[in-house]
Amino acid sequence: MEIIRYASLKTTPWANGGGVTRQIAAGPDAKNWDWRVSLAEVAKAGPFSPLPGVDRIITIVEGELIALTVDGAEQALEKFRPFRFSGDSETSASLPTGALKDAKPHDPPRRLQGLRRHH
């Protein structure tokens, strides 16, 4: 087992300037991934970058609330309540209670979904 320390994770700034991502793991490699687990520090509201063909899951791990608008429908997400949505969706976020951190596992591209079991 490898222990990964938060402070050792490289930060990658977002294109919209609203935060940074710290990638924990990805495969098959860090740049050309089919799956990824990351932590994000969200400092300000704004649009999400599209991730075509990828299912996203967002879970707030520090902070209280994020309001996502996914394809025009608003979703209020509370701490520790995961929410799944398509990386193809037009998505933006507002931060009614301020900055937060979230965990984001990204599932394999949909071309592999038939191999996975959904509940």
Describe the structure in your own words.
- The protein has a six-stranded antiparallel sheet with strand order 1-2-3-10-5-8, with no helix packed on it. The chain has a four-stranded antiparallel sheet with strand order 4-9-6-7, with no helix packed on it.
- Mean pLDDT is 85; it is low at 111-119.
- The protein has no helices and ten strands.
- The N and C termini lie far apart (29 Å).
- With 119 residues, it is mainly beta.
Q: Radius of gyration, Cα only, in angstroms? A: 14 Å
Mean pLDDT comes to 85
What's the total helix number?
0
What is the straight-line distance between the termini?
Answer: 29 Å
Which structural class should the secondary elements be placed in?
mainly beta
Assign an overall shape.
globular
Please give the share of residues in helix.
under 10%
Number of strands: 10
- Secondary-structure element sequence? EEEEEEEEEE
Uncertain residue segments: 111-119
- Characterize the largest beta sheet: strand count, sense, and whether it forms a barrel: 6 strands, antiparallel
Order of strands, main sheet, comes to 1-2-3-10-5-8
Q: How much of the residues is beta strand, in percent?
A: over 45%
